[in-house]
Structure to design on (84 residues):
């Protein structure tokens, strides 16, 4: 799977917090966090998008990841980057 950068956050903490909120597994990468987006993750993404208490930036990330999954239903590697 080729890695796709789906979103860039201003800080490491914001990027990590957004992924934690959604509940995806990820690992440290150079300048971000990477993981494998799998079909089973669709439920986590849908829940993050639908929840009333989801912060806007987390919802935006969940939507971007959902679009990536829709484009590659078998799964895709992703990177969530941070600037500082």
């Amino acid at each position: 799977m080729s890695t796709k950068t789906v979103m860039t956050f201003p800080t490491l903490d914001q990027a990590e917090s957004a992924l934690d909120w959604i509940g995806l597994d990820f690992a440290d990468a150079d300048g971000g966090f990477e993981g494998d987006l799998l079909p089973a993750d669709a439920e986590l993404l849908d829940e993050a998008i639908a929840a009333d208490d989801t912060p806007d930036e987390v919802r935006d990330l969940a939507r971007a990841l959902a679009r990536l999954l829709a484009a590659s239903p078998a799964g895709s590697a992703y990177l969530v980057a941070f600037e500082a």
Summary: The beta strands are 3-9, 27-29, 32-37, 76-82. The radius of gyration is 12 Å.
